[in-house]
UniProtKB/TrEMBL annotation:
GO terms for biological process: trehalose biosynthetic process. Its EC number is 3.1.3.12. It comes from Cicer arietinum. Its cofactor is a divalent metal cation. Gene3D superfamilies: HAD superfamily/HAD-like (3.40.50.1000). It catalyses: alpha,alpha-trehalose 6-phosphate + H2O = alpha,alpha-trehalose + phosphate. Pfam families: Trehalose_PPase. Keywords: Hydrolase, Stress response. The gene is LOC101503089. Belongs to the trehalose phosphatase family. One of its GO terms (molecular function) is trehalose-phosphatase activity. This is Trehalose 6-phosphate phosphatase. Removes the phosphate from trehalose 6-phosphate to produce free trehalose. Trehalose accumulation in plant may improve abiotic stress tolerance. Pathway: Glycan biosynthesis; trehalose biosynthesis. It comes from the Eukaryota.
Length: 364
């Protein structure tokens, strides 16, 4: 396998934070009114408290408790579905919009191809979903874009003909099985890891997180090689503050890492300018669609981290995003599907359409 250049850029905030902690404060300017040290410390405590509260708010937001039968929910849902109609209901329009263009499929895993379950190690994909994705990959170039590390997601999917972008796009690999889209196994050489230098740090943080959170019942910590996850789906809500504090106390030693939130999961990620949106763009370039007008990328995902990819498509003005959700959520995706079963139906319809569409009407 060949390896492409490693591009790593760090956010200023992480570096600044490190400098602030080690440097002596500069001399006060003329007219400077000294603030008592006690008040500064108090303010720092308030800021730290606010940060924990923000973290707790995000943890709650990742697990909304909607009462579907209330009139206000119905009203909110009806207005949302008008803005993000079902991709199944809009299938004819989607077909029309993509005619003559090369569809490229991007699929998130958890909550999109497999239903959300309590134990991340048991998030199995159904056999019918696997068959559908296999057929899909015969019709269109298809990539899995996931927060999980490639090895874990591959164990669930087991389809060698797909592109994989694991660890939130920080680990990109091409198909290992020859297909229509990677003749002569050219794509097999593809390996792109923009956060490679963070692997030892993530390993260290993972071990510290396991140690720090072991007193919190229900917590699961996962090592995804280029990032780590702390699951709180099975942690009693009364202990969320304690858990957020444990995680933050580990992270404060690592200014080059930052925290994001997924579905009942805290994600620890390197502070580099890379996300699922960048991974999508990279894959389109790899497939030869860098400056192409006749490409039609479709990204299906259910989580906050998928928004980076939805936004990328919206910025490019190409294709569209589909959010998998039963509940109204703020999103840049154009369409929606309620659950993995609907995703499967949508993919099956694409396959059937592709098979009956004369060659002249679609690009491949
Ligand atoms: O990008 P994704 O493929 O959606 O991965 C995001 C996270 O997915 C997994 O966690 C989620 O699914 C679990 C199994 O259903 C569920 O228990 C958890 O609450 C969800 O957040 C995965 O375990 C994480 O590491 C991924 O970051």
């Amino acid at each position: 396998m060949t390896q492409q250049n490693v591009v790593v850029s760090e956010t200023k905030s992480g570096i600044n934070a490190a400098i602030t902690m080690t440097q002596k404060p500069p001399a006060p300017p003329a007219g400077y009114i000294p603030i008592p040290r006690r008040r500064i410390l108090k303010n720092l405590e308030i800021n730290a408290g606010q940060r924990i509260n923000t973290c707790i708010d995000s943890m709650r937001a990742s697990s909304p408790t909607h009462v579907k039968s209330t009139p206000s929910f119905a009203e909110e849902y009806n207005s949302w579905i008008l803005r993000h109609p079902s991709a199944l209901d809009m299938f004819e329009q989607i077909k029309d919009a993509s005619k003559g263009k090369q569809i490229v499929m991007f699929l998130d895993y958890d909550g999109t191809l497999s239903p959300i379950v309590d134990d991340p190690d048991r998030a199995f994909m159904s056999e019918s979903m696997r068959k559908t994705v296999r057929k899909l990959a015969r019709c269109f170039p298809t990539a899995i874009v996931t927060g999980r590390c490639i090895d874990k997601v591959y164990n669930f999917i087991r389809l060698a003909e797909l592109y994989y972008a694991g660890s939130h796009g920080m680990d990109i690999k091409g198909p290992t099985k020859e297909s229509k889209y990677n003749k002569n196994n050219k794509a097999e050489a593809l390996l792109f890891q923009p956060a490679r230098e963070f692997v030892p740090m993530i390993n260290e943080v993972y071990q510290k997180l396991v140690e720090k959170t072991k007193s919190t019942p229900g917590v699961i910590v996962e090592n995804h090689k280029f990032c780590a996850s702390v699951h709180f789906r099975c942690v009693d809500e009364k202990r969320w503050i304690e858990l957020a504090q444990q995680v933050k106390s580990v992270l404060k030693e690592y200014p080059k890492l930052h925290l994001t939130h997924g579905r009942k999961v805290l994600e620890i990620r390197p502070s580099i300018k890379w996300d699922k949106g960048k991974a999508l763009e990279f894959l389109l370039e790899t497939l030869g669609f860098a400056n192409c007008n006749d490409v039609f990328p479709v990204y299906i995902g259910d989580d906050k981290t998928d928004e980076d990819a939805f936004k990328k498509l919206s910025d490019r003005g190409q294709g569209f995003g589909i959010l998998v959700s039963k509940f109204p959520k703020e999103t840049t995706a154009s369409y929606s599907l309620q659950e993995p079963n609907e995703v499967m139906e949508f993919l099956q319809r694409l396959v059937v359409w592709k098979k009956v569409t004369p060659r002249s009407r679609s690009r491949v």
